[in-house]
Amino acid sequence: MKVDYGNLVEVKTKDKIYRGILIPRAEVIPGNYLVLKLANGYNVGISKREVKKIKLIKKVKRKISFVKKIELKKDLPIVSVLSTGGTISCKVDYITGGVYPALSADEIIENIPEITNFADIRAREIMKVPSEDMNPRLWRRMAREVVKELNSEAEGVVITHGTDCMHYSSAMLAFMIKNLNKPIVFTGSQRSSDRGSSDAFQNLLCSIIACANGKIAESMICMHAGIEDNFNFLLRGVKARKMHTERRDAFRAINCLPLAKVYPNGEIKYSEEIYNERKRGNVKLDDRIDERVALVYFYAGQKPDILDFYKSEGYRGIVIAGTGLGHVATSFKGYSWISKMRELSKKEIVIAMTSQCLYGRVHPFVYTPLRKISMLANVIYCEDMLPEVAYCKLMWVLGKTKDPIKIKEMMLTNYVNEITKVTNPNAFLI
Amino acid sequence: MKVDYGNLVEVKTKDKIYRGILIPRAEVIPGNYLVLKLANGYNVGISKREVKKIKLIKKVKRKISFVKKIELKKDLPIVSVLSTGGTISCKVDYITGGVYPALSADEIIENIPEITNFADIRAREIMKVPSEDMNPRLWRRMAREVVKELNSEAEGVVITHGTDCMHYSSAMLAFMIKNLNKPIVFTGSQRSSDRGSSDAFQNLLCSIIACANGKIAESMICMHAGIEDNFNFLLRGVKARKMHTERRDAFRAINCLPLAKVYPNGEIKYSEEIYNERKRGNVKLDDRIDERVALVYFYAGQKPDILDFYKSEGYRGIVIAGTGLGHVATSFKGYSWISKMRELSKKEIVIAMTSQCLYGRVHPFVYTPLRKISMLANVIYCEDMLPEVAYCKLMWVLGKTKDPIKIKEMMLTNYVNEITKVTNPNAFLI
After folding, report:
1. For residue B129, which residues of chain A lie inside 8 Å, CB to CB?
2. Is position A234 within any domain?
3. Domain co-membership, A279 together with A318
4. Structural domains counted in chain A
């Protein structure tokens, strides 16, 4: 039986019945698969071989949206919106299966007319990449484009981005742009904009407000603060992390309070955290990095041979997400990391220690094994930096110097509020 | 100048002045180091070469503790306390530098006389290992000893353990002990028992209460619930994680509510979570595991070559902590994981996917790249299991079968409440 895309169907297989809208496969999966969009908004792929029957339940009319021209207020601050890909820019057309290009400024305004109260938008697409595919080459390109906008008349830059690795990008750009003068605000959505529960519009609106009217000139993330659509958090880009796979309020501040709450009505409430303020002058691209850095998550029972691998592959730096205050195994033969770490240290491969606890600070002087790690293997204990942030920072530091003393000094220098001297005791699980 | 250990001194170096109690170095650090216990309870090591001056500030008298014999109530439930090492069993004697062996039953009772209201204690040391040094051999030994106790007249077993990797051990033992009939309660301390702020005593007391009077027969963790000394949480051992490097309330329930609150006065308040209840009959050791399992934390920019390494080392299973719903890079040459994952899958190396978000559930059918990963590379999406738990479970599953279909089926079977069908929406950041 032939059913057109875009219609509600029931597909029967040997074991199961699926009900959903038949949509075209967006990418090349070998073999023959049907794809249905289920009522919960998720898509499911079903091998055609398993399909026993397809029943047309309802013909769905195609919605065609017209872009309306909306009159802008005069003298609004200019905000640049750069799109990089991710769920926020996914709008599948059920009929053609084509994926729309990035939202144009007109489309953004059509979907979020409130924006015309706050800013004059300039939107363009700089890449179209799911965020887990971000890499040093793309971060450099992103930084270059953001620098252009920051040195234009725009009051700030919104970057729409996939959520999974948004906090890697927000950290990398924090280091790559010197003399930051205006807000850089990353945003995305956890639910695609064709779902009723989408967070895309509020996230975009609040991000634009933070750029148009906000005082903070840092690389930040602006996402839903709670499961209600009340307001967004403005999070420090080097102190934030995606902490839930699905929730709209997945992004949380780690070891630091959210910098501000941003309300869709334009209000911004700042927290007590100290931040970098807007300033005059131009920013400068500082994107020399050494990509040969790995992030290794230590686990109980892990053998240190993984360090040999990175050594043989020519890596120059390794960030370890150790346990607790910054531990790895040290006691038993075959498991102890100490001698391998010393070997790496002798080859001038830098080892930086963070904690897989995520919250809190590493500290080399509490336990004897840590003192050994720190003294014998020259491991740099990265204070309260997140593993992902230390990974980005170490690439950036190794792009500047090869001197081990200078590297340690730079890793422990606070450049963009990535190190908090004393953590606010309330900054736990908020 | 010669100052005896145990005295309060001031040590002057070129840059700094340290004040603290001079203690002996507990382990072999090459070179000459002084170790001071600072007022904040932490120790600091100072190279003797850097010492300009040592000043005696105060002679500290040695405290000698006598073990008092305390009369026990009759007919109290018997609780076994097995000590394995960690901060909770660290009591440095400032004079000799020796570390006490595990607390004896008498010493526990001397320190926590309230225990005599609840239980008759039997304590013994089964190993003395910092928890980051735990490994499959030690887990097997631990499981064997716990099985002995569970099949004795004891009403439950408390395991004192280092905190860093306590959640790895609590997960491993959950799988290794079949037909669990009584509580297994892991506990430890974030501050050593020689510090005023130590959590050792309340943690031990509440753990013993949970064993003596509690209804839940699961492998659990009992640690401070908040920063106040009000009560402890009883957490499911396969749904808990150390989330802070230092705080006493570092252990949190992930994707499930705490099972109960335990109060030092003996009260236990159960949450709405469903749990496994105490039952009759004996437990059985089920410790056949395959150790050749790795845990890989994916990060943006990571190349898939790490999979070659594990393949060449003869690993049989790899648990990936992917991004978001379970992603790795798939788009760019040199970075895409798809073809390497397929290679591994052809060699019957099992790949299991979890999320580095920690909270939430992985799901292979939301995005096209995930559908590819799931279909092409036979990756097992591990529902809402934590990466550490999936790592322990995969070792245990591979110890039972080599059949890929059976492995997948077992990984997705809920054995000890490690998979929650529907996550309680309140189980986020609590």
Report:
1. 331
2. yes
3. no
4. 3
Within 8 A of B377 by CB-CB distance, chain A residues are: none
C-alpha to C-alpha distance for A275 and A268, rounded to whole angstroms: 14
CATH number at residue A379: 3.40.50.40
The ipTM assigned to this model is 0.85
pLDDT tens, position by position, A54-92: 888 887 654 434 344 445 566 899 999 999 988 777 654
Most A CBs within 10 Å: which of B27, B167, B310, B323, as the mutation test of the A interface? B323
Q: Looking at chain A, which residue has its C-alpha nearest residue B163?
A: A324
Q: Which residues of B touch A391 (CB under 8 A)?
A: 299
Question: How many Å apart are CA B245 and CA B356, to the nearest integer?
Answer: 18
Q: Give a yes or no: residue B423 inside a domain.
A: no
Query: β-strands B284-285, B43-47: how paired?
Result: unpaired
Smallest Cα–Cα separation from A218: which of A203, A240, A245?
A240
Say whether both A265 and A297 belong to one domain: no
The CA distances from residue A101 to A88, A97, A129, A260, B37, in Å, are 11, 13, 12, 31, 62
Neighbours of B175 (CB within 10 A): 25
In this structure, are A220 and A246 located in the same domain? yes
Q: What is the mean pLDDT of chain A?
A: 88
Q: What is the DSSP letter of A277?
A: B
For residue A269, indicate whether it is catalytic. Answer: no
Q: Choose among A65, A62, A13, A14: nearest CA to A34.
A: A13
State the catalytic residue, choosing from B84, B87, B187, B354. B87
The shortest C-alpha distance from A104 to chain B (Å) reads 23
Judgement on whether residues B297 and B270 belong to the same structural domain of the protein: no
B242 is catalytic: yes
Domain for residue B83, yes or no? yes
Domain that holds residue B332: 293-411
Closest residue, chain B, to A30 (C-alpha): B376
pLDDT of residue A110: 76
Dig out the tokens for A257 from the structure: 């309070």
Q: Chain B: give the shortest CA distance to residue A426, in Å.
A: 11
* pLDDT score for B28: 38
Tell me: do A281 and A173 sit in the same domain.
yes
Domain of B46: which CATH number? Answer: 2.30.30.520
Cβ proximity of B193 and B111 under 8 Å: yes
CB-CB under 8 Å, A135 with B300? yes
Q: Tell me which chain B residues have a C-beta less than 8 angstroms from the C-beta of A355.
A: 245
Question: B416 lies in a domain?
Answer: no
Note the pTM of the prediction, 2 decimals.
0.85
Same-domain check for residues B18 and B132: no
Is pLDDT of A96 > 70?
Answer: no
| Judgement on whether residues B214 and B155 belong to the same structural domain of the protein | yes
